[in-house]
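Technical annex B. To support the medicinal chemistry partners, we prepared a structural model of the target in complex with uridine-diphosphate-N-acetylglucosamine, based solely on the information shown next.
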Amino acid sequence: MPIRTLFLFGTRPEAIKLCPVLRRLQAETDVFETKVCVTAQHRQILDQVLQAFQVVPDIDLNLMRPGQTLFQSSSRMIAALEPVFRDLKPDLAIVQGDTTTTLCGALAAFYARVPVGHVEAGLRTWDMAQPFPEEMNRVLTGRIADLHFAATPWAAGNLRREGVPAERVHVTGNSGIDAVLYVRDGLVNGTLASGMDWSFLNPARRLIVVTAHRRESFGPGFERICQALRRLAIRPGVQIVYPVHPNPNVQDPVNRLLAGQPNIHLIAPLDYIPFVDLMRRAYLLITDSGGVQEEGPSLGKPILVLREKTERPEAVEAGTVKLVGTDEDRIVAEAGKILDDEKLYERMGAVHNPYGDGQASARISAAIRSFLTK
Ligand code: UD1
Ligand code: UDP
């Protein structure tokens, strides 16, 4: 009998990081039968990824509501997942990361007495308020999970220090790097095309690509980030492209403070392949995204991270990422240093990627196989 795995995800980053794993297990039909349930905690930006990886879910719970609160999305998810587990009876549930879908998926699996595999396990800031609510989500998911796929030795060490038995923790690399290397290489060798018309970019200006969406920055933090971007955009020879996250708490300040500003292009969230293509064209990335700061090193790009604390210290230690928080002056000063100092720029960009080598999905598949066939 094949092993029935249930992939549970709902947001853009979970989809980007789980689709390569799903594809890998789907190819191993002698061992695995795969089922996909999306909560659709995100709708449009989840669908963009499903299309890019040509994944059609078996079950789509279609749970996103505009302006949903944490109370609303988590309570609806738990209720909607009960019949999914009852009907599919999986041997293993696979969740990724630290979102509401991750925690509710793991909890629902626990209630159904189904073992859980956690992809991108062991990230920690040890501060429950930063990032909020993600730190709590991943700590609780880690407590529930039976099998932990850590991207790096540091993340694996965190789990072991929390008492997770060593044989349940596998260092696999981050499956997001499988995705970005696949797209990067496809764009380079011409087997993939972004389909984008980039003629709105000015070739004489260096490109800063920005993304930001963290809950702990809503309100004053976003105001300061936007003021910093206005100041950076009037430096000579700079242009900014900012695909704006659909969360209304992001859309409102960003549109109010940045729409129509010179050298700032606010655009809709991009499909995954065009977004990787945009990052390739960038001189510098400024972001609070977990995924973007992991992908940047694979593209040789320095990254300023709009956060005070990180659960991804490896690229900071390697020198390719610098934490700058949401202080307006600090963002402007640190970006200025990188724009003005070519040697610093080259040092930051020339780092190998500590988060993965493109083989994470193969390692995850092998670990699941040995866990379930023992
Ligand atoms: C969520 C995750 C966060 C992750 C981020 C990735 C939680 C608590 N937060 O944050 O960890 O880093 O996704 O992007 O799980 N919306 C749309 N269309 C979409 C997606 C969102 O309109 O395709 C709007 C809706 O109004 C929705 C709101 O954004 O209610 C918030 O979405 P939600 O998933 O609750 O939080 P995010 O801020 O996206
Ligand atoms: N991304 C994308 N289109 C965009 C912006 C980001 O495809 O317009 C990708 C990006 O390459 C990365 C992922 O989305 O793989 C990051 O998602 P997000 O920032 O929403 O979440 P986080 O990683 O912070 O949880």
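Notes passed to the chemistry partners:
The first strand starts at residue 3 and ends at 9.
The chain is about 45% helix and 15% strand.
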